[in-house]
Amino acid sequence: MRSIVKLATPVAAAALLLTACGGTTGGSTEEPSAGASSGSSCPEGLSIGFFGALTGPDANLGVNIRNGVDLAVTQHNAQDGACQVALEEYDSQGLPDQATGLATQAVRDENVLGVVGPAFSGESRVADPIFAEAGLVGITPSATNPSLAEQGWETFFRVLGNDATQGPAAASYITGTLGKQKVYVVDDASEYGKGLADLVRADLGAAKVKDNTVQKGQTDFSAVVADIRATGADAVFFGGYYAEAGLLAKQMRDAGLTSEQVAFVSDDGAKDNGFVTAAGQAAAEGTVFTCPCLPPDQAEGTFVQDYTDAYGTAPATYSAEGFDAANILLDGIADGSTTREDLLEFVKGYDEAGVTKQLTFDDKGEPSEISVWAYKVEGGQIVADQEIPAS
Amino acid sequence: MSTSTTSTTSPKPERRTLGERWADLPKPVKIVVWLAVALFFYALPLLNPPLLSTPESDFGSVMFTVASYALVALGLNIVLGYAGLLDLGYVGFYAIGAYTVGVFGSLHGSLPFWLLIVLAVCISTASGLLLGAPTLRVRGDYLAIVTLGFGEIIRLVALNSEWLNQSRGIQDIPRPPDITIGGEPVFEVPRLLWDGLTATVDLGNTSAFLEFGLLDGVPYYWLALSVIILVLLGDVLLQDSRVGRAWEATREDEEAAELNGVPTFRYKLLAFAMGAFIGGLSGALFAARQGAINPETFTVQLSMLFLAAVVVGGQGNRWGALVGAAVVAYLPERFREFADFRVVVFGLLLLLLANFRPQGLLPPRRARRAQRAGKRLAELEGTEEGARA
Amino acid sequence: MPGTSPPSPLEPNRVVPLSTFLNLTFTGLVVGAIYGLFALGYTLVYGVLRLINFAHSEVFMWGSFAAVWMMTLLNARAGSGGPAAVLYLLLALLAAMAVSGAVALLVERVAYRRLREKKSPPLVALISAIGASFMLSEIMGLRDRIAGWLNLDGVLGDYVRPARENTQFVNPLPNATLLDVGGFQVRSTQLIVLVAALAMMIALEQFVRRSRLGRGVRAVSQDAEAAALMGVDQKRVVQLTFLLGGLMAGAAALLYLMHIGVTRYNVGFILGIKAFTAAVLGGIGNIRGALLGGLVLGLAENYGSQLFGSAWKDVVSFLLLVVVLLFRPTGLLGESLGKARA
Fold first, then answer.
1. Which chain A residues have a beta carbon less than 8 Å from that of B339?
2. Taking CA atoms, what residue in B is nearest to C53?
3. Total number of domains in chain C
4. pLDDT (tens digit, 9 = 90+) per residue, A144-180?
5. Which end of chain B is more exposed for a tag (fewer CB within 10 A), N or C?
6. What ipTM is given for this predicted complex?
7. Helices (H), strands (E): how many in chain C?
8. Cα–Cα distance, A26 to A29 (Å, whole number)
9. How far is Cα C249 from Cα C85, in angstroms, rounded to an integer?
10. Which pTM does this prediction carry?
């Protein structure tokens, strides 16, 4: 008795499936998507995408950006008579191998007119070719590897300076403003950290005393600290993210290398409150970060206040860039660019003031106006120090 | 043991399981059924059935991922399931396959695609032999740790070697060549669109046969599925051969096997090399689909997922390995909203399976055979001892 | 990409000054002692059960969080010093050891006991432990979500967020330079860590060697069946073994925090592999071997970093492991928890 039921169930299910198919396959071939209508300026169901890590170990940066994008969309939709836009999230967990399916999904969803992201350089290399093939505009708020703009992807844009602008600025700040002569350059072997540190090395020239490479996730830097001491360096530049930067700074200070003796300079990937957490307030004090980003108080409008009201925390790394990138797309939609082709053209010709900078792109998709700022840790807070003049 | 009475649950001799009925079917019927099953899997991404399809990621791409995991699981199943060698660094072979295609296809050369695949398979097999020759002599649990170290070393070397482009990884990896007739695809297959339970054929949205574009994962899935079928055929032949029996003997009792004249070391090495072969093949396909690879893909965690696939499915059962791969690769994509919890769920699954169903979801035939034999023995002896087997 | 050519990994690293060599040696010993203490859990369990306790890494990780939370609870301030600082550290040590011990017992109960009673093959036990390890680490990584479900987010805010980021350990002891000879420095925290780790290990060895319970552990590891016949309660001994390993891992976690300063939900994985390497290096199952293996590993990592660059540190330790397993699979001191030598 039982075995008959066992067999019967799948058969019944298959039959059901077959009738479901057979009943309808003969008929219509129309596309149900709304994107096809041409007359109205605002088709229903439009959306923009966010592409980056929302879960997993790298979720912190992704959530910062997503909140910025979300704020922009909310503000856009709240305007009178605004063309309503939804936000599609593509949570890549920062992993390139997840990016293929998600990028394809974004491309296949005809309601998605543009994407903010991908957030990291690694996933960009997988997702951006797919966007380029489909003519879907992608504005990254955080992937800073210079080579991304050199691939001939017509749909690639970014709203922040790449590492090629930050590297020379960091080098000139260390040797010029800080007046250091013996710089020890460490990177974390990541695409971002290593790429940036190599640029700094090139620009430091003879002022670089030694290189070293650590690994993401490494926690014990005692060998590096011993080596820094041995070389008699008077400054350390770290290319990488805040977790390792903070621990290296702490272990240097713990080993008695004070901030007067050896300055610690790092990059925008380390410019995060997580740095102060990892280093501890005492060891973090006096650390300098370079960042191709304007300080929030330089931003016009109410972005900082709005963001804080909406999410209960102050905007963090790349939130403002995410906000800007989303606003470019939303302005395009408000302007009536409601197809992918139109929106791509709109973004190419965009020239408006954003929260972080004047937003306009050159023919490679790089932002035209970039200023690099130095930030400093003072009393456990990361505050703006000065703009680093272009050298 | 508990005092539950086995007499009520013990099968009567004439009652037959589904598997036995299946075994008695005439051969043509079997072949027809197999063809139907294969056809169903080929058609799956185009049928795009509502409950099965992945709402938040492209179904064709996900199916490719599932297929490449399935291929890996088949390879690891030979190592772990047949030969009983715990390899915690299996991702190393996957990485070697992927990097071979990247290095000789894009970074330091531009060999044609099919040659790259052959090269990838050769190099990963050779690395399997090189790693296996010294390490297979160490104890089983030490082997696990040595292979874990091997997997990490492969990743760290890729991450830190200038020649392998460090963390930048490799881009512009060649795709499989399109096979077309006069620039047109051989044929195109339309997809189904679902609205609730009613389906419509979407003629505007087709997948081209043997045309490997960037936007469509389906042709890659078909390629991977075809490779899986070939590997499965080889797997069936191998397991029923002398080699398969030698592996079984080695796994169950190495010393007894050795005493009976089985050169266990050589067979273990063979299993290791076969596993490396399939792992490398899968890695090569992955690189070709992905177009860009970098070292952060090939972490120990991926090794653990591969292991989970084989263990969940049932070590030693090729169908189990396939089911396990589907569980490990497909479920997190289907239920993306729970993506954050997938590692917890895997952990729980491994823990529960190890404790309550160590043979996996689909135990190998041998285990079921042993169980039945044990039960019969128990009946004969009138004790419950045998039921434990 | 523009840039100077990075150093080749095998570039000879000039002449290393004596002070650097001494610094590398001393800090290597400090880290090595932590590895050794952590490795005891692997060695003890292996000695008694002949199983690799893959979940031991998460026992360590939970202990480290217990110490961090204890400091948050006490509202300790960094470097405040005084007798209060010593008391705080002792409380943190207690918390770490208690939590680690409890988690170790939990692992034994959930991941091992049933399998042991069924006499499952070691592979199944290893997979069970891998499962337990995944769960323990991810539960810590998801603690903010879990607190959210339980509506405890408001109460536990400081303890659960951000769940996937580094969490800071506040060390109330000031860190003074005790010795500075031509660039070779000894700092007070480092010395405390080294001495404390050695003291814990000696205490454990004495316990296993001299106490009645310890004799039971040795008896079971020598010959489980004979021990059972002689009336040793095997279940008790196994529990005790896990507990001892857990307590030591808790102590190692506190010392690690004093040395490094932060912890994270996934900190256990790589450290666990290092500690296991240390246990194998010295001869798994051998208590003194764990210490020796830890120290050798710590030194090898530091010297290797100096020679080949820090990027190759983990490669050095994995290669060391592979080479030892191939050429001297019983480790430097041999595998003998039961033998008189241990």
1. 55-56, 91, 93
2. B141
3. 1
4. 888 899 989 999 999 988 888 889 999 999 999 999 9
5. N
6. 0.86
7. 14, 4
8. 9
9. 22
10. 0.84
